[in-house]
Amino acid sequence: MRLHVGCAQWTHAAWPQPSREKLRSYASWCNAVESNTTFYATPSQTTVAGWAAQTPADFRFVVKLPQLISHERRLSGVEVELRAFLSAIEPLADRNHALWIQLPASFSPTDLGSLAAFLHQAPRGYRYAVEVRHPAFFDEPRTAELLERVLARVDAEWVPFDTVTLFQHRPTSLAERDAWMKKPRVVRRTRALTAHPIVRYIGRDDVQQTVDGWAYLVDSVVNWLGEGRSPTVFLHTPDNVEALGLARRFHSDVRSRVPALAPLPEPVEVDPPTLF
């Protein structure tokens, strides 16, 4: 029985991390991470091998496909680029938990054929997770059902980005105001399609508001674990200052109700900086 938790990044100026090997330090706090850097460019195999070397065997990356594939080409005519990307991330081996296909808000129900074709032609042996942002997928039950059918054909997961807590109150900081402008405002999803549900939850810069808002998600994760599923939950806040500790707190909240859940590692202590 395992719950993976993590953040949207593995380094932050406010987190207690050494000057080098920040990923190794992060992996002593959390057992998963969103690999957002791959969205902007395909890394070298050497770089990815370094990621693998800094993480234990049971650590999990949810690796975002490059924007060239998902946004610019919109999943069409990308066979060469996809092969190159999969070759680059080979060093992750089993640490590669899922290939994360984050689609732009303009990717609408009329584009479902492109998604279906991409998933049908994509190499087997990988787990695929799709994040959509067009409102129709959330507001129209028939459209949601069509998307679920496309995903079910290849046992792919629908990744919800839960922003309900973020939008419950007006912004009180620059970071929250920025998040209000950029994050999707859609209804909450609690339905898992596969044995490996993935949820991205964004709260507020206020810790208590963030914790209060995830009560439903603790319930969902407890239920999923009871059903034999292995969920992954990523904790965000607008400024992500407290995200590292919040990820561990979420895991602790679930473990208080599921004592058999494997614990997270103990964080590695970071020596304070010295003058010499």
UniProtKB/TrEMBL annotation:
This is Uncharacterized protein YecE (DUF72 family). It comes from Kribbella steppae. It comes from the Bacteria. InterPro entries: DUF72, UPF0759_sf. Gene3D superfamilies: Protein of unknown function UPF0759.
